[in-house]
Sequence to fold (514 residues):
Amino acid sequence: MKTDVEELSPTRVRLTVEVPFDELKPNLDQAYREVGRQVRIPGFRPGHVPRQVLDQRVGRSVVLEQAIKEAVPELYSKAVREAQVYALGQPEVEITRLDDGEQMAFTAEVDVRPKFEIPDLEGLQVVVDDAEVGPDQVEEYLGALRERFASLRAADRPAEAGDYVSIDLAAEVDGQPVDDAQATGISYEVGSGSILDGLDDVLVGMAAEETKTFQTELAGGEHAGSLADVKVTVRSVKVKDLPELDDGFAQSASEFNTVGELRANTRKQMEVMRRAGQVGQARDRGIEALLGQIDMPLPESIIEHEVEHRQQSFAAELDQAGLTIETFAESRGVTAADVEKDISDDVRRSVKVQFILDQIAEQEKLSVEQEDLGQYVTQLAYQQGVSPDVLARQLTSQGQLGAVVGEVLRSKAAALIAERAKVTDQSGRHVVIGAQEPGESGAPSADLDVADSTESVDAPEAAADASADAPAKGRAARRGAAKAAAGQGEEKGAAKGRGRRGAAKEAKPPADAD
Fold:
């Protein structure tokens, strides 16, 4: 087989492949067997029809078409490897010559990763946050811990900012009730601004069993953007009592017996978290430093495809929240064109980052072990709330293992950037970034039962399998923004550095006092 490569642009090539007919013999034999099983010819059993009879009854051209259909994908993959082309996406293939018994030739046009040089990683300058934790930061955390253990006590007075009220809400638009804007028994913190604009202003000064009506614009649902008349009734007013920061609180909120022990452990755990945060910052900021030093053309067809995909996904998420791109943009004080440009810019950045990490993985000959895959899948399963073993089987059965390998390789490449860069904290002190395995979480890894797998996977092959699927960073941010715009944002309490006994209670609202 002979392969010639013609560069059509810095991001696209045309492969011209010439194949002697002898190399097609296995595919031709298989094609005769397939066609022979499919046709019914009197006097012959299926699969046992002589080739001469098939040529007469079916036609040699039908068999050749079947053989070429089966041969071209494998020949294309071989040509890409031999030509050392980093192909992206699906090629456009055209059969240009077919001389029966002599030669077959085809061309394949495909997008490729652009050529660029990786700067010396040891020359990168990266600054991360300080890891030290001061007394004020410890007290701030302990104050938040006290908030989580606060209790509610009935107040015989009108509501004030910071109080908790139980309220009923009923909204009408043009005199008609809005079905998805009726609620009873809502526990709400006055002043939090988490439900409706204008609600806090009305609640301040209201007493139990008092009702008022105010106007506001609905943020989500069928009547999103409509001006509604909202009737609010206060059922009860309660104040929040914070527990004293004493030894008794330490014992109830943690495994420690004294406030001193709790305070010391809090500081230690916060510093551990900050040192771990320095690792992530070093990776992210190391990548940003590389982005500023590397200029490369990007394959426009890949960019356009990913931009279209993200726009459609984002529009679907907004639609579920009862919004459009226009109403979302308006809520952010920008235009729909600004939102679309943000998506496009994010795609371009993501693709560029992927190319950089893939090339580093290739140059450094990074590989992925089964343990790496297991750890990554375990972390992914935890994020999705499914069993690691179930997710591992799904990824394998759906042919997504190559994409997973590519992501693990990129994670290793990002870690390598952080390890080799000159990392200092904001105080000018040198920070050592050690190796950390992708997906490391301290949990058992998933048992990846991958058929015909090897102990490790080479970077070039895995990156090619992963194609040009850009990282999803930015997509999740817009998803959260869409929910927030519709009043559906989720509250997430801090979950790290807490005591074991306090962990079970931290997500609860203040308890009612007996």
Observations:
- Residues 6 and 103 are 21 Å apart (CA to CA).
- The longest helix spans residues 259-293.
- Confidence is low (pLDDT under 50) at residues 436-509.
- The chain has 16 helices and 14 strands.
